[in-house]
Design goal:
The chain is α+β, with helices and mostly antiparallel strands and 159 residues long. It has helices spanning 3-33, 40-43, and strands at residues 67-72, 79-81, 87-90, 97-98, 109-114, 117-122, 129-131, 134-135, 140-142, 148-150, 153-158.
Length: 159
């Protein structure tokens, strides 16, 4: 083989080695810094439908929850106002409540209103969703103050 061919092969292997190193650094960076959470407006395309607005608190009954509060886990203290639409919970940036929890799935569970009550439903997650100490397999009504556990995160509905 000529010296030119050997030099080209060496440079080619050097480029491949650097591509491998840079891709490994990219994977490590994503692992360390976690999922990038996008602003709510950036998820919807311009001119597309805007996210639904929560209903006015005055319309609700006295026993109806108005807030969802994280009471345990990495997001302890986080509060969401409940509206007329479902709350999607998981690691995906498109979820309403984005969890930074290794034990939750991308689309783990949802909490939704139906016939004047709120229900929790597991969306086929790997580690399951628990209402109190019981795992749930189908939509189950949730009372005010009942703990919902998703991985290390505990969520409750409040007035």
């Amino acid at each position: 083989m000529s010296e030119l061919v050997v030099t080209v092969l060496r440079l080619g292997f050097l480029v491949l080695l650097w591509l491998l190193v840079l891709s490994a650094i990219g994977v490590l960076r994503r692992d360390i810094f976690g999922t990038r959470v996008l602003a709510r407006d950036s998820v919807h395309p311009r001119g597309g439908p805007s996210p639904p607005r929560p209903a006015a608190p005055g319309r609700r009954g006295r026993g109806t929850p108005t807030r969802l509060r994280v009471t345990g886990g990495p997001l302890n203290g986080t509060t969401l106002t409940l509206g007329e639409s479902a709350v999607l919970i998981g690691r995906s940036p498109g979820c309403t409540l984005v969890l930074d929890d290794d034990y939750s799935s991308n689309r783990h569970a949802r909490i939704f209103p139906s016939e004047g009550r709120w229900y929790v439903e597991d969306l086929g997650s790997t580690n399951g969703t628990y209402l109190g100490a019981q795992p749930i397999a189908e939509p189950v009504p949730v009372g005010i103050g009942q703990p919902i556990r998703i991985g290390q995160t505990v969520i409750e509905l409040h007035r």
